[in-house]
Amino acid sequence: MLDAAERLVAVKGFDSVSIRDVTGAAKVNVAAVNYHFGSREGLLALVMTHVLEPLCAERIARLEATGKQASVDQAVAAYVNALEPAAVRIGMERSLFYRLAGRILSLPDEALPPEMKDARRETTQRFLAALGKDIADDWAFFEAGLAHSLVVDAESKNINALMTRWISFGIRALGTAAGKPKNDAQGLLFEF
Length: 192
Prior knowledge:
about 190 residues
């Protein structure tokens, strides 16, 4: 049922997936959702946790590998490049993981299970602290743009090129460790 729910949410979004959709795809009785997960919300919370937990852990591990003070280049690369290893860690097809991660990362904090809301906030705070700059608004713009792109372009035949472009965009939009002036992130998006 978890696999069916993940596939359906990746394609249709959280609001469009019903218990009947999930049980139909998994070929199980409707009562099975309540028995195993307590409710539709319990199942969807598990979907979120299944993706966010390894993604946040991978992002933090990659950030920590850069040292105490990360450059913008290192932080952006760590953030984006954590996607594939997180997908591998849970054994999920990469394009499905990317799209599902994009949908989850697009949700407001209130929609996440409490432990995942805390994990996502902690991950963001760790990146901002490592950068040591006041770029919270620009970082939020970068995160939201990447999340949206994952939903829309996860099936792209050239997903590696897309991720490379997001790294390049993030580095340029957030400035560089060498002290170059920070560019306007929204203006750069038109070049993306």
